[in-house]
Amino acid sequence: MRAFATSILVFAATFLLCYPLEHKTSAGRFRKMDAAYFLDIEYMLLAVLLYPFVTEAIYAAAGNLPDILHRLPLISLRPLPLISLRPLPLISLRPLPLISLRPLPQAAQFLAALFVYDLVNAVRHRFFHKGALWRVHSVHHSAAEVNWVTKFRTHPAENLLIMFLSVAVTLALLGAFGIGGAGAVAAAVVFGNVYGAFIHANCSWTFGPLKRVLASPVYHRWHHSADTAAQDKNFASVFPVIDMVMGTYYMPEDRLPRDLGIGAGQAAYPQTFWRQIIYPFRREKI
After folding, report:
1. Fewer CB within 10 A of the terminal residue: the chain, N end or C end?
2. Each residue of 161-186: pLDDT tens digit?
3. Distance between the two ends of the chain, CA-based, in angstroms?
4. Which of 69-73, 90-94, 266-270 holds the top average pLDDT?
């Protein structure tokens, strides 16, 4: 039930935030309901159907994570006395009083969880722009017109990897710093998903003086830009400082992004649901 409730919360919050905002700021130029729009709707419906089941699996996996790691000798550090971290309190993965964030208020734990979640996703996102993973991720970038619904245009294989890898790594890192509050982690994941839809909204907000503090719709639109100077930039979804550190920050002062998509291969890219689903597994290159 909690997974279903989380799913309903994410999609309801996304719709209530993004739809009125985008409709109001687009000055009547709301996205037309063409084939590309309904393609995004198909992906959104798929996400609605899959999200509760995947989320429940994540909850179950997270609960069993300590036992699973203990039973894997190839990655467990316990059976290896030469490299065991147990005698080294300075780098122990157990919660340390000096760096534990548990005594902090829930709001501070939420911000810490959100930052770690965004950091993990940004690194994961960067890897998805390379090699075979790009073929999967290119489905998301195939949209020539981007709005909040485009957030859901994601290949199911990538969705599974995002949900399992990003959430699992986030939980592991937060556990290392003693953030054991499931509420803070769940709130961060929900907020991250809703905010991820918001930054896809078709509006020209840059957040002005705060543009280096929070990712804006324009900030992420540059990530979707076909402009060669903007390619492989702006991987973070919430905190631009992550891209500043990675050297992938891109936010021109004198113009807004215009042409979106995957560039030269846009015209030849499959634009139907099932062709996009099978595209990453075919040999053809676009």
Report:
1. N
2. 877 777 778 777 777 766 656 677 77
3. 42
4. 266-270
